[in-house]
C-alpha cells in the first residue's frame, strides 16, 4: 500500500514541478493572454484527441502483456521527452515535450488503475479507502513539487525539467524493483490493435438509470478539469502573479486538498454518500465563485478552504459505481479483482461478453479523453469571450455552474439507492 502511494505521489510530482513553466514561457514569447489561453486549449484538445484514438488499443495491450511493462514504458517516455527541454529550452521543444507527456501519462494511469483493481477490486469499501489515500499522496506530491518548481522555473526552466526527470527516474525505480505483475498469464488475451471509437463510451450510460446518473455526476465534475493551466493565465491577469507565486499557490492548494481528501471517510459516515457528494461538490462550486472574483491575494487564498472541502467529491460516486459492479457482477473474486475501480459497474456485461478488464478500463478512459478534447477548447473560448466583455472570471463561473449541476444530479438519486444492498434492491438495479 505504501509503495502504491509513494509511486502515485512521485508521478504527480513529476508534473507538479514543471506545472507553472509553460504559461509564463508562452507569455514571454510575445503572445497575448487570449492567445496563450487559446494555445493551451488547443494543445490540451489535440493531446486528448490522440488519447481517444489510442486508449482502446493500450487497454487491450495491458490485457495482453500485463500491467508492469506499460507502467515502465510510459514514465520512461515522459522522462525522455522532458529531457529534451534540458538540452534545448526553446518554445517548440517545450510544446513538443508537453504533447508527448500528455499522451504518455494517461496510459500510465490506465495501467495503474487496472493494477489497483487486480489487488483491491474485490472489496468496494477497501477500494474507496485506498483510492482516497492515493489521491492524498498525489496531492502531497503535487504540493511539494509545486512549491519547489515555481522558483526553479523562474530561475531557469531547465532546472525544473531536470528535477522532473529525476522524479521520473524514481518512479521507474519503484515500479521496476517494487511492483509485481498482477495479471496472471492465464488471464491474458491475444493482442489485436484497434483504435477506440468515442461512441464506445456511451455504453456507460446504457446500463441503467442509476448508472447513467452516477456517470453524469462524474462527467460534470470532469468537465471542470478543462481549466488546466488557464488558471495561471487568469491569476496573472487578475492579480499579476508570476510563476513563483502560482507555484506557491498550487503548493498551498495541494496540501489543503490532501487534508480534504483524508476527510472523505468521516464525511461519508456523517452525511451519507449522497450528502457528502452534494456538499463537497457545492464546496468546490463556492471555491470557483471566489476565484472568479479574486482580484486580491487574500480572496484567492481564502478560496483554498472550500477547495479543500471539495477535494473528495468524486470518491463516494466511484465507490457506488464499484458497489454496483460488485453486486451485479460475477461472484468470482478473481474476476472482480481485475476490474478498474471506476468501471466496476460494467463487470457483469463485461464477463458475459468476454471483454477483458483492460479494455473496460479503456472504455472509461475514452470517456475521460473525449471530455479532455472538448473541455480545454471550451474554457479557452470562455476566457476569450469573457475577457472581451470585461468578465475575466467567466471560466470560473462556468466551473461553478457545472459543479452545481453535478450536485443536483447527485441529490436526484434517492438516499437508499446510494446504499441499498437488499436482494430486492439488487434485482431492481439489475432490471433497470
UniProtKB/TrEMBL annotation:
A single Gene Ontology CC term: membrane
Subcellular location: Membrane
Annotated signal sequence range: 1-16
Gene Ontology terms for molecular function: transmembrane transporter activity
Record bears the keyword Cell cycle: no
Designated name of the protein: Major facilitator superfamily (MFS) profile domain-containing protein
Predominant location: membrane
Topology in membrane: Multi-pass membrane protein
Species name: Emiliania huxleyi (strain CCMP1516)
Transmembrane segments: 159-179, 369-388, 394-413
Gene3D superfamilies registered for this protein in UniProt: MFS general substrate transporter like domains
Record's keyword terms, sorted: Membrane, Signal, Transmembrane, Transmembrane helix
One protein family per Pfam: MFS_1
Origin superkingdom: Eukaryota
Amino acid at each position: 500500500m505504501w509503495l502504491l502511494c509513494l509511486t502515485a505521489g512521485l508521478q504527480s510530482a513529476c508534473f507538479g514541478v514543471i506545472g507553472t513553466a509553460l504559461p509564463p514561457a508562452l507569455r514571454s514569447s510575445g503572445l497575448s493572454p487570449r492567445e496563450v489561453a487559446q494555445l493551451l486549449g488547443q494543445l490540451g484538445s489535440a493531446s486528448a484527441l490522440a488519447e481517444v484514438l489510442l486508449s482502446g488499443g493500450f487497454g487491450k495491450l495491458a490485457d495482453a502483456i500485463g500491467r508492469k511493462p506499460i507502467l515502465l514504458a510510459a514514465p520512461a517516455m515522459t522522462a525522455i521527452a522532458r529531457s529534451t527541454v534540458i538540452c534545448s529550452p526553446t518554445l517548440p521543444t517545450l510544446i513538443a515535450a508537453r504533447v508527448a507527456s500528455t499522451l504518455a501519462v494517461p496510459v500510465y494511469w490506465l495501467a495503474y488503475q487496472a493494477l489497483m483493481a487486480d489487488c483491491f477490486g474485490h472489496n468496494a469499501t477497501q477500494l474507496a479507502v485506498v483510492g482516497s489515500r492515493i489521491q492524498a499522496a498525489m496531492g502531497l506530491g503535487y504540493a511539494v513539487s509545486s512549491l519547489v518548481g515555481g522558483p526553479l522555473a523562474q530561475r531557469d526552466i531547465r532546472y525544473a525539467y531536470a528535477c522532473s526527470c529525476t522524479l521520473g527516474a524514481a518512479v521507474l525505480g519503484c515500479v521496476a524493483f517494487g511492483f509485481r505483475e498482477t495479471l496472471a498469464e492465464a488471464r491474458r488475451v491475444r493482442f489485436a490493435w484497434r483504435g477506440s471509437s468515442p461512441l464506445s463510451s456511451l455504453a456507460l450510460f446504457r446500463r441503467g438509470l442509476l448508472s447513467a446518473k452516477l456517470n453524469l455526476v462524474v462527467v460534470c465534475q470532469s468537465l471542470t478539469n478543462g481549466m488546466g493551466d488557464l488558471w495561471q493565465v487568469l491569476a496573472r491577469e487578475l492579480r499579476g502573479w508570476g510563476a513563483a507565486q502560482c507555484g506557491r499557490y498550487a503548493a498551498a492548494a495541494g496540501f489543503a486538498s490532501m487534508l480534504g481528501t483524508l476527510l472523505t471517510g468521516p464525511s461519508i459516515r456523517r452525511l451519507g454518500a449522497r450528502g457528502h457528494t452534494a456538499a463537497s461538490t457545492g464546496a468546490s462550486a463556492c471555491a470557483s465563485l471566489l476565484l472568479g472574483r479574486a482580484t486580491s491575494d487574500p480572496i484567492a487564498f481564502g478560496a483554498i478552504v472550500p477547495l479543500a472541502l471539495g477535494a473528495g467529491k468524486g470518491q463516494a460516486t466511484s465507490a457506488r459505481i464499484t458497489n454496483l459492479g460488485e453486486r451485479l457482477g460475477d461472484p468470482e473474486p478473481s474476476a472482480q479483482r481485475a476490474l478498474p475501480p471506476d468501471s466496476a459497474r460494467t463487470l457483469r456485461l463485461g464477463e458475459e461478453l468476454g471483454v477483458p478488464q483492460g479494455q473496460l478500463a479503456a472504455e472509461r478512459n475514452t470517456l475521460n479523453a473525449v471530455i479532455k478534447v472538448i473541455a480545454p477548447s471550451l474554457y479557452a473560448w470562455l476566457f476569450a469571450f469573457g475577457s472581451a466583455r470585461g468578465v475575466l472570471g467567466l471560466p470560473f463561473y462556468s466551473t461553478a455552474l457545472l459543479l452545481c449541476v453535478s450536485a443536483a444530479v447527485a441529490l436526484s438519486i434517492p438516499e437508499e439507492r446510494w446504499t441499498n444492498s437488499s436482494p430486492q434492491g439488487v434485482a431492481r438495479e439489475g432490471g433497470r
